[in-house]
Amino acid sequence: MINRYIGADIGGTSIKLGIIDEEGNISERREIPYRSMEEHPDVMKYLIKGIRDLMDTCGQETGAFSGIGVSAAGCINSVTGSVADNGGNIPGWSHTEVVKTLREEFGIPASLANDGNCAILGEQWIGAAEGFSDVLGVTLGTGVGGGIITGGRLLEGSRGYAGEIGHFPTHAGGAHCICGLDGCFERYASTSALTRKASTADPDWDNGRAFFEAVSRGDETAKAILDEWITDIAYGIAGLIHVFDPQIILIGGGVSKQEDLLISPLRDKVLSMVMPDFADGITFRAAQLSNDAGIAGAVRYLISKEEFSNKM
Ligand SMILES: [Zn+2]
After folding, report:
1. Domain count within the chain
2. Are residues 280 and 148 in the same domain?
3. Residue 149, exposed/middle/buried by CB under 10 A (0-12, 13-18, 19+)?
4. pTM above the 0.85 mark?
């Protein structure tokens, strides 16, 4: 019999849920907006209700599922299965005991991991990085997320905090970051950084679409801003390539659809910044799974934990 799991992905405004089997087939996707009415909703209450509804409508009892994998934003301690001091932009999220609560509620295995790490695991399992053992994932959005798989295993650090590449410093004495530090990679490489720069040059370029249209038209100012942004991203990636020697760089976020204007020039720029032996054979690719990455990766994380503990 094929094991089936529930995958959950908790973001700043909604919870995505789905059923995923051990071969990575996803069904019964749903999205629960939890922040539409309430200022400080109890996220765990929405999560538990969502999982219960999903089990009920699928006519399955709790025992028919082998576990619940949860991906979440915020600073996640995957060893304790709880949220650390910094709960990110999820209200009341700090110090929530996610795994303990789910185990008590449903009586089946559960796991919790950072959303950047889950996204990259999902892509390696059933997405754009399938078949690769050494993967560097960089998600360009409002901030910069990421994840690192090395030797086939997710790099977690001692508590699961690892892979937070948005907050490794790339600019000495640089701009102040939301995390409280200065000069972080995401202050320069996020799409917010791009939009900030673009809309200063031209107020009409306050969204990605308008800006990339200007670049496509050949607007010199827009092209220069894009080139500067790509250089900032490339600096960070080049540094990480020297540290981790990945086979593939996976670029995520809505902007990664810009193959000609982003992925391709970014690849050229990065390769010009790394030692030739490191550059040799590296693949650059856009992430593929979009909304499925978090739920799939959360389940892949749970399965890998079980495989690991079975070996002990
Ligand atoms: Zn930071």
Report:
1. 2
2. yes
3. buried
4. yes
